[in-house]
Amino acid sequence: FVCECNSGYELGDDLMTCSDINECDVGFTDYSSDGSSEGGSTNGSFNSCTQICTNTNGSYICECFSGYELNDDLLTCVDVDECSLNYCDQTCTNTIGSFVCECDIGFQLGSDLMTCTDINECGLSIECSSN
């Protein structure tokens, strides 16, 4: 008899037991469905994740860094436009993987770096011009 392993597992040295392949390890080749390496991963690993790879039993899942979300292909990560989520009170600038809030003149950015509070200019020691 000959033992074979399911996809995502490899036959052990004893030729009888199967163990999980860590698809997240570097050094594997990602083979296409027809068994050729054409169209496979170019990142030197078995998976095609662009950011974070988490090994699971017989497979793997891709995850993204903060400020990114997994694309529909479940492999690549795309930047989240946090400005479209209305995190900032006033002015928002989307950056790669993050965002920056700013306040209009007469307001100051709060400690949460998102809310703007009115500055009481009358309470400041500011001398106005005679005009």
Q: Which helices and strands, and how do they pair?
A:
Blueprint: E1 9-11, E2 18-20, E3 52-56, E4 59-63, E5 68-70, E6 77-79, E7 91-95, E8 98-102, E9 107-109, E10 116-118
Characteristics:
single chain, 131 residues, mainly beta, two-stranded antiparallel ribbon, 10 strands, 29% strand, rod-shaped
Please, could you describe this protein's structure?
β3 and β4 form a beta hairpin. The strands form five sheets. The chain has a two-stranded antiparallel sheet. The chain is mainly β. Helices cover 0% and strands 29% of the residues.
In short:
It is built from no helices and 10 strands. The protein is an all-beta fold and 131 residues long.
Sheet with most strands: 2 strands, antiparallel
Radius of gyration: 26 Å
- Poorly predicted spans: 29-44
Question: What percent of residues are in strands?
Answer: 25-35%
Into which percent range does the helicity of residues fall? under 10%
Shape: rod-shaped
